[in-house]
Each structure stands twice: as structure tokens, then as C-alpha cells.
Write a structure and sequence with these properties.
This protein is 31% helix and 27% strand. It is an alpha/beta fold.
């Protein structure tokens, strides 16, 4: 199976092509960035596909991170995945950033739980907790940092995600301390690809996974209408 993986959810723009039969990435590229995903993504995808020496119609599916993350970044990646999937007549699948973060650790951590955490700003995080075998202990949620820490009742965890260090710095001194702190700015694109290969397109659609509304909300009425009402 040939998978094109895309990630623009957080502070990176990344793309990769995975050949599951060979068990390796044919090509990959990542650029760390907080803005500019829209301008960087399509040229990056073109370079990755050229490096892999593949046409889009050779792909079996397209995998993309769907959140939680930057609202703008998510729209860029998901729109690209949907558009390419439509043009190539291939399915697009969506994976959460939290599961992509955890995937690199699950299976290697034994019985140690894994907390994936993404900075939601305003002293909050998006997080989930999985057991060492990948089974879900606490489903994806948005909570204050203290609430997220309090939700961990499963022993000393691995912390991973762009908010991992934020949690570590607030971790209570009288609680079992984290086994490791992996503050990656974005998930490893190879794990986005591998999760995409395993995902069911029917139950993992390429659509935004939001846990809270955007910080910036449109005005209740257009500005000119508000002005007219007060004139």
C-alpha cells in the first residue's frame, strides 16, 4: 500500500510517502513553521511525490492530521488531502494529532501510560491518555493544565506533544514523576503515514477534529449593519 501523509496541524508542514509493503518511507520532508503552511504545502507535496517517483494515481490513500491544532493549519492540510483524493479517486483518512504523537511511544513503553498533550493556550491543553498497549484510558478532551494532570491516575507517564514540557513543569512534586518528556513541535510524519495505512476510511474521515471553538469569533452582525443600526 502506498500512502501520502500530510501534516499541517501544528508548528510544522510535513509530507511523506510510505510504502507499507517495503516497510519504509520512499520520501519525506518537514519544515518547522508557525505560519505559512498554505504557501509551503503544495510545493512540498510535489517534491515528495517527485522524489518517490510516483504519480498521484499510484497512491492507495491519503492520510492527514485533523486536529486538535491550529484552525488555519488544519484547514490547509485537510483541504489539500480532500482535493488530491478527489482528483486521484482515492480515499482520504484523518488521524488525530494526539494519536500520532502517542504512536511513536506506544508499544515501547511496556505498562507505562502515555499522555499526549497539545497546547490549547490560555492555560489549557488538548490531551488524551493511552495505556502502554495503546488502549484508551482517557479520551481526547480539552482541559486546564491542572485538570489534565489530575486526570492521570495511572502511574508515572510518558509525556509527549508540544505541551509535554508545559505539563512537566507543573507536575506535582509529590506525584510519580514522568518517565520521559518529549516536547515535539509536531507529530512524526512517518507515524501519520503508518496510522493512515491502518485506518478505516469509513470511520476515520478527513474532517476537522475540534475540541473547542476558535478563539476568534465573527461579529454577531456585519460592521456596516451595526453602524447603520446606530446611525
Amino acid at each position: 500500500m502506498l500512502i501520502l501523509a500530510i501534516d499541517t496541524a501544528l508548528e510544522a508542514c510535513a509530507a511523506a510517502v510510505l510504502d507499507t509493503d517495503a516497510g519504509e518511507l520512499l520520501a519525506q520532508e518537514q519544515q518547522l513553521m508557525k505560519r505559512g503552511h498554505a504557501e509551503a504545502l503544495m510545493p512540498m507535496i510535489a517534491r515528495v511525490m517527485q522524489s518517490a517517483d510516483l504519480a498521484f494515481t499510484a497512491l492507495d490513500r491519503i492520510a492527514v492530521t485533523v486536529g486538535p491544532g491550529s484552525f488555519t493549519g488544519l484547514r490547509v492540510g485537510i483541504s489539500a488531502a480532500r482535493g488530491l483524493a478527489l482528483a486521484a479517486k482515492r480515499p482520504a483518512v484523518g488521524l488525530t494529532t494526539l494519536s500520532a504523537y502517542a504512536a511513536a511511544i506506544v508499544g515501547q513503553s511496556g505498562v507505562v501510560p502515555v499522555i499526549s498533550a497539545v497546547d490549547a493556550r490560555h492555560d489549557h491543553v488538548y490531551f488524551q491518555i493511552v495505556a502502554g498497549d495503546g488502549s484508551l484510558l482517557v479520551p481526547p478532551a480539552v482541559a486546564s493544565i491542572d485538570e489534565a494532570i489530575a486526570a492521570s491516575q495511572f502511574g508515572a507517564p510518558h509525556l509527549v506533544g508540544n505541551a509535554a514540557r508545559i505539563l512537566a513543569e507543573r507536575w506535582p512534586q509529590d506525584a510519580p514523576q514522568p518517565v520521559s518528556v518529549d516536547a515535539q513541535p509536531a507529530p512524526d510524519i512517518s507515524w501519520v503515514a503508518w496510522l493512515g495505512a491502518a485506518a478505516n476510511p469509513d470511520t476515520n474521515p478527513a474532517r476537522p477534529f475540534y475540541l473547542k471553538a476558535p478563539d476568534a469569533k465573527p461579529a454577531a452582525q456585519p460592521l456596516f449593519a451595526a453602524q447603520a443600526a446606530t446611525s
